[in-house]
Amino acid sequence: MIKSDTGAAPSGLSRRNALKLAAVAGGASAGALFSGVSFAQEAAPAAATDASTGMPNWRRIALGEASVTIILDGLRPGEGPHPTFGENQSAEAVAELMRTNFLPETRIVTSFLPVLVEMGENLVLFDTGFGPGGRENGQGRLVERMAQAGYAPGDVDIVVLTHMHGDHIGGLMEGDVAAFPNARYVAGQVEYDFWISEEAKNGPRAQNAAAVEKLVVPMKDKMTFVAEGDEIVPGIVAYEAFGHSPGHLVFEITSGERSLWLTADSANHFVASLQRPDWEVRFDMDKAAGIASRRKVFDRIAEARAPFIGYHMPFPGVGFVEKDGEGYRYVPLTYQLDV
């Protein structure tokens, strides 16, 4: 478990609350923009939506005594989902599944969703988005949109890396300076050891290994390495879900009588990855292990009937699953956590 430095509420907490109050001042009704989300009587700020599209940039839900805020780091439209999803299937089979689910057959939009969790005295950030490297493409918006949600980078106490692909570690630094100056860091030992290995540095993943060397290794002295069952702070537990990357982790967050899972990249398309969990995903480094982890994680979530947040699910990325035939049926969050 990673403990707070002192027993008293840190000074950043009052600054954090002040920012949140400033963010909501003069805003519109929460119900008008964020149906189904607990805002603890806060009004939704006008800046919560993109001025050009009207789309929301962040969303906050209550989980027992905890507060969970999903930030839209950006969107990436493109061709797909085949062959990124269903790499071992024909294009026609993937197109048919999309058509059945009222989705475009040859186009896809991917979300990137870092998550902030307020647990007791700690503000924990899970993953950091693209950072400066994504801004030309409309990504890397985490820090900007954190401000809209009432958080400053200095408020973050702990940064957790579910794994070390570029879209999860790109926001660790702004230039040569740590983006979250007061934070400690948490990562999987297996994941870190792979990316600093000679195998990673000299193999087909060399570009990503170079990014780890630049962005993650400088944080090592402030980093705690975790494995299966380790507690990050009271109420947040890590579980191994290897396959997408060598040391990929998921997390269960429990507050009061409610739990929520952060599934990271265990499943990255709400139809292709969940209705057809055995379809191979191009970005899964070990495809067989990725399939096994996908089933292990979502069998457990389905049995618990718990909500989860997927890093690449359609914004805001929160939903439920139940077992259905060979896969799972996905149900987006509406008002389940409000009653």
Helix and strand arrangement:
Elements: H1 11-24, H2 30-33, E1 58-63, E2 66-71, E3 74-79, H3 91-100, E4 107-112, E5 115-119, E6 122-126, H4 142-148, E7 158-160, H5 166-169, E8 173-174, E9 177-178, E10 184-188, H6 189-195, H7 198-202, H8 206-215, E11 223-226, E12 231-233, E13 236-240, E14 249-255, E15 258-264, H9 272-275, H10 287-304, E16 308-310, E17 318-324, E18 327-332
Parallel strand pairs: 6-7, 7-10, 10-11, 15-16
Antiparallel strand pairs: 1-2, 2-5, 3-4, 5-6, 8-9, 12-13, 13-14, 14-15, 16-17, 17-18
Question: What do these coordinates show?
Answer:
By secondary structure, the chain is α+β, with helices and mostly antiparallel strands. It has a single domain (12-338), classed as Metallo-beta-lactamase, Chain A (4-Layer Sandwich), CATH 3.60.15. The chain is 24% helix and 26% strand. It has ten helices and 18 strands. The protein has helices spanning 11-24, 30-33, 91-100, 142-148, 166-169, 189-195, 198-202, 206-215, 272-275, 287-304; strands spanning 58-63, 66-71, 74-79, 107-112, 115-119, 122-126, 158-160, 173-174, 177-178, 184-188, 223-226, 231-233, 236-240, 249-255, 258-264, 308-310, 318-324, 327-332. The longest helix is centred in the last third of the chain and has 18 residues, at 287-304. Mean pLDDT is 89; it is low at 1-15 and 24-47.
